[in-house]
Amino acid sequence: MIAGHKGEVPFFVLIVPFLAGILLGVFFGQPGLIPFLWILLAAITAAFVSLNLFYRKLKLYKARWTGGLLMHLVLLVLGWLVAVKYNELNDKNHFARISSQYLIVKINSEPIAKGGLIRFTSDVEKSVTGSRTGEVSGNLLVTIRDSAAGSLYYGDELLIPAKYDAVAPPANPAEFNYKKYLANQNIHYQAFLQRGQFVVLKANTGNPVIAYALRLRQRLVEKFKTSMHNTEAIGVASTLILGYKADLSNDVLQAYSKTGTIHVLSVSGAHVAIIFYLLNLVLGFTDRFRHGKVVKAVLVIVLIWAYSLLTGFSPAVCRAAFMISMIIIGKTYNRHINSLNVLAISAFFLLLYDPFFILDVGFQLSYLAVGGLIVFQPIVYKWFDFQNKWADKLWILCSASIAAQVITFPLSAYYFHQFPVYFLVSNLLIIIPSMVILYAGMAYLLLPAIPFLSAALAWTLEKSILAMDSALGFIEHAPFAGISKIWISTWDCLLLYGIIIGVLYFFYNRKTALLRFNLAMMLLFTVSVSIKRWNTLSTSNITFLSLKKHTGIVFKTGDKAVVLTDLTDTDKAYRYSVQPYLDSCQVASVRCFLPDDDIRLPGLHKKAGLAQFGDKRILLLNTSIPDLAPGQKIATDCLYVSGTREPDTALIGKNYQCKLFIIDVNNSPQAVHLLEQQASSKHIEYWEPGRNKSVLPVSN
Fold it and tell me: Do 584 and 553 form a contact (C-beta atoms < 8 A)?
């Protein structure tokens, strides 16, 4: 095991209350708490210092736990305070709190061009109203539809109109939560600008080191493009070696994700380790000199952090750079450094810099994977003992892959809802190609343009990437290559971690108490999954999806569903908005029909615009409201109105009697206003899918 006693890993023990404090700050982070937290932190710190000064007088050796308790409380409150202060919405000078005509913003990221749009994040520095300016703060996501924006770069200062909106929440159940994704990066507002709606006030005013690194990375990406011809290979090379993801296609990303090798496309510890190995090899001659080890350590650390800067300072790269830096320092001065301690120290400083990293999926998976390698890989390795040297080396790689995959599985299933069955084969298969790609790519970028040699390196790089992509594509489409539609709750995720950690720890010390613990965790997990499955099979409902320019209504009975839509299952809107909802409901059988189709199925009958599903009668009014014969009136439970520009509310009231209005997103603003007035005047409940409710329960 990594430690026989908690005293061997003090930083790992102490980071736990700090993490708990950050989570408190994330979920209970009201700005009014800041003064209270400052006072509490000062009081606990003073108590801790005082107790240490008067340790003997107070006879605290009889209550040694007091010092540890106070230290944990200090870290808990520190984490809470750091998280509350970091949240930009808690700043009284946030730009959204101040009315203004214009905003002065500074681009703080590399602008990305895609689909005719330029997108970047920016720091809002000043508000402008008339001739008055004021200091403000906050982050703003800016999207510009203007070819002139193609020349914008990191550090440029812009004047833009103060027209921005809060990032919208997901419009449909189980849809990707872009609002939450941006909020985890401390971004809550976005602005969409058209041609001529921005003015460049100053250029290149950002951090000169970051600006140089970004421009250097762009030149290196262009160097790939000069000698390589396949666009997918260029995208993979730029992502894998430089961390530049703008040219990476979704198809390639999906192939790596489904085969469990997505980590290859994230510049991480493996890349930094290779850089360290190469630098250590090249600078090995310095060990012969008096202070050579110190000089080499300084050079290697500086160059590793320079590479981290070049690749974008992702959490995984920063973690690896910090850990390797600590290991280099320890080896230079002949000090033993516990890997778990180093991991905890790196997490502490990263979270002190940006506490919202704790919400970043890459941060979570990176630290879990490394923790799994440190703690559990030795346990897995002991399962088999191979006498053959090459078989033993192969098993070392397999045990590392198993430990990392198993410890990250619950979190991967929670976020990505899939499990790659052939992850072991995939990871073994890419070892040689990925090493060739890294070495050939770095050699190609570092060496000047040399005839034949540069062309040979570029050819080797491109062919290696294409070979790796082909192999992963074959595995992706192999039978039973992956288990998809895995939707687990936070509670299920925690239970899975309890099971995994309990089982692996049992292999270490074989205590029977762990067996009882594991059985209890498995029982709770089975009960949780069974309850959700029972609820799925025993419930029926109608879900009205919010799809711009399209219709989407789901009639679900148990694990079967009928989808009324004008989309095909290959359309992007279907895969983004409809399929995730069906998967989250554990739907096994799906049938799609066009909105105008007549349907006659068990439990669902639809004729023209009138549908009967269970005990609910629904009238679908699309594009127009038909006039009925004099005196005729249709009674329905629900009236779904879509695409009506100027509805005749009087005609609706005369012809239809209903209990609920469903006002689709495709109605014009005028139509929505009129329908809301109609519903309010007749005391009828109304829903707007995408804004409030969208699921209507049904009894069969």
Answer: no
The model's pLDDT over 108-133, given as tens digits with 9 standing for 90+, comes to 998 988 888 999 999 999 999 988 99
Q: What average pLDDT does this structure show over 317-332?
A: 80
With 0-12 / 13-18 / 19 or more C-beta atoms within 10 angstroms meaning exposed / middle / buried, residue 365 is: buried
Q: d(Cα 74, Cα 46) in Å, to the nearest integer? A: 10
Which two tokens mark 688? 């707007």
3-state secondary structure of 30: coil
Task: Write the DSSP symbol of residue 94.
Answer: B
CB 279 within 8 A of CB 304: yes
Q: Is the distance from CB of 465 to CB of 237 less than 8 angstroms?
A: yes
User: Number of helices and strands (H, E) in the chain?
Assistant: 23, 25
- Residue 381 reports pLDDT greater than 50: yes
77-98 pLDDT, tens digit per residue, is 999 999 999 999 999 999 999 9
Q: What is the pTM of this model?
A: 0.86
Q: Which helix (H) or strand (E) holds 615?
A: none
Judge whether 263 and 239 are in contact, CB under 8 Å.
Answer: no
Query: What is the maximal distance between C-alpha atoms in the chain?
Result: 105
For residues 274 and 254, what is the distance between their CA atoms, to the nearest angstrom?
Answer: 26
CA distance 536 to 560: 10
Under DSSP, is residue 373 helix (H, G, I), strand (E, B) or coil?
Answer: helix
In this structure, what is the dihedral angle of CA atoms 147, 240, 339, 358, given to the nearest 10 degrees?
Answer: 30
pLDDT at 4 over 60: no
